Amino acid sequence: DVVLTQTPVSLSVTLGDQASISCRSSQSLEYSDGYTYLEWYLQKPGQSPQLLIYEVSNRFSGVPDRFIGSGSGTDFTLKISRVEPEDLGVYYCFQATHDPFTFGSGTKLEIK
Amino acid sequence: EVQLQESGPGLVKPSQSLSLTCSVTGYSITSNYWGWIRKFPGNKMEWMGYISYSGSTSYNPSLKSRISITRDTSKNQFFLQLNSVTTEDTATYYCARLGLGALDYWGQGVMVTVSS
After folding, report:
1. From the list B47, B100, B107, which residue is nearest A101 (CB)?
2. A41: part of which helix (H) or strand (E)?
3. What is the pLDDT of residues B70-114, one digit of tens each?
4. I need a surface site. Which of B17, B31, B42, B47 has the fewest CB within 10 A?
């Protein structure tokens, strides 16, 4: 199975500052169709996970442009510029390139 | 708007089967792929498997001998059955749609405890 190594485990950020989360894959996530199915999700307290970014860098409908996904191959990053109170929760990367699909271990974002 | 809703018992005895239903509104399950995911106590998330628009299935090999995903297109529902459960199957179970190559719509989740 593809292992997604997500760092850091937790992050404490001042409101208005930037946060950055890394996701490294044990294999390339580029699929044979040329797309890279690496996504980012946020699970807010008491809620279901919600899709933020799909195919590495595409923001899902309604996601603010403060959320920026980047990367390629095996190395990916989610940056949150100007962190706001509603950004707290657990962030997961997820790959849907190789079956079985797999999740990263999660990064808990706290507000200082 | 696409909406998913899980339902099923919150308590299952060890060695029995866990059965959950995902009811979908606003979109037909004869399009796209539809999956089950679970979150264990703590933060660990596990992809369990999916059923496709045509009814074909794919399961996580870690569960392959115990899992079954089926559907009822007339009710626009799909189902999860997990056999021979143990306490390690205690988790919150989610259903979700696979669209854009991602899990774009999720249910609210159902917490299932395996305990005698």
Report:
1. B47
2. strand A38-43
3. 999 999 999 999 999 999 999 999 999 998 889 999 999 999 999
4. B42
